[in-house]
Amino acid sequence: MSKEIPVENPPPYSGHPTTGPHFLPQNVVHPTQPTTAGQPSGYAYPVQPGYGQGYGVQSASYNNTTTIVTQPTIAVIQVYRESPVRTMCPHCQADVVTATHYETGTFTWLACVIICFFGFKNFVAFCIGCCLFPFCINGCKDVVHTCPNCRQQIARYNRM
């Protein structure tokens, strides 16, 4: 059997008529009271401390507990390729966009040797120096990322 608790009309409020600090619902049911067929079990409106005194409603007691929610840390892996990257310089701790330049690396020399090997079969291509083309193409060289602030090397992208 459900017991309805009488609620007096609240004092006037300048905001929306169903909101504000003085609004209480008409049919407040305490969770320990039995419910009727139309109400779900354990149905209750939350009553904030101090709001039930003038309206005949029991105030609920709240536990003063602290809940600590921890977020998993996400490791951001910076990928240094051919394009400049925005990062924090480990040397000067500045937030920078890296400056890039190209240097001869293993892939450049390997491409030179392969072209030279196939150039022996075609003596004209060998004499012209086609084996030196990888040294002129940035796509065959390694990319070095440097800090524009302190000029220190931040990363290196090796083709091999």
UniProtKB/TrEMBL annotation:
Residue intervals of the LITAF domain: 65-159
InterPro entries with a match to the protein in the record: LITAF (IPR006629), LITAF_fam (IPR037519)
Membrane topology: Peripheral membrane protein
GO cellular component: late endosome membrane; lysosomal membrane
One term of GO molecular function: zinc ion binding
Keyword hit for Membrane: yes
Protein location: Endosome membrane; Late endosome membrane; Lysosome membrane
Top-level taxonomic group: Eukaryota
Coiled-coil residues: none
Keywords: Membrane, Metal-binding, Zinc
Residues covered by region (Disordered): 1-31
Family indicated by similarity: Belongs to the CDIP1/LITAF family.
Protein name as annotated: LITAF domain-containing protein
